[in-house]
Design a protein that fits this description.
The chain is α/β, with parallel strands linked by helices. It has one domain: Glutaredoxin (3-Layer(aba) Sandwich). It has five helices and nine strands; from the N terminus they run E-E-E-H-H-E-H-E-H-E-E-E-E-H. The strands form three sheets. It has a five-stranded mixed sheet.
Length: 163
């Protein structure tokens, strides 16, 4: 698992429009919230992605890009985005390399079998590419608002108490 103060692993992933996004392109310009979620269209993933989309303007006001990452392919992302009116950029990590680098995709032993598990997780990365917050196994409801408060704090803005 990644820790605060560590350099964020850089990556290049395709988005719902099959355009490649390179995390290193933000260096020196914008901070990022990268939220990893298990699957497009599931109830909790829909709540999380919708809430981040609802707050995207506020994140942008703080020079912060919001990125959602799952192992779904680009077409599934496009369908998910369009069906729910999502505005955040959804990135496709089909092979799971980025998920493993961030420690959100892990093999665990259960009932004598190795099973791939996925921890819903969020990372706040500053303009220098340093992880300022690493949240593993988060609850989706209200999460975007809490992350927004953390980004405000990182930027030195006055933040209201989160729930």
């Amino acid at each position: 698992m990644l820790v605060v103060g560590q350099s964020a692993p850089v990556f290049q992933l395709p988005d719902a429009d099959m355009e490649t996004f390179d995390l290193s392109s933000l260096r020196g310009k914008q901070s990022a919230v990268v939220f990893f979620y298990p699957r497009d269209g599931t109830p909790y993933c829909t709540i999380e992605a919708t809430e981040f989309s609802d707050h995207e303007y506020e994140f942008n006001e703080l020079d912060c890009v919001v990125l959602g990452v799952s192992r779904d392919d680009c077409l599934a992302h496009a369908e998910f985005r369009d069906k729910h009116g999502l505005s955040v950029r959804l990135l496709s990590d089909v092979d799971g390399d980025v998920s493993r680098k961030y420690g959100v995709s892990q093999f665990r032993e259960k009932d004598g079998q190795r099973k791939l598990t996925f921890l819903r997780s969020t990372f706040i990365i500053d303009k220098q590419g340093i992880i300022r917050t690493a949240l593993y196994d988060v609850s989706p409801k209200g999460h975007a608002a809490e992350v927004f408060q953390l980004v405000k704090q990182m930027n030195g803005k006055r933040a209201h108490a989160s729930r």
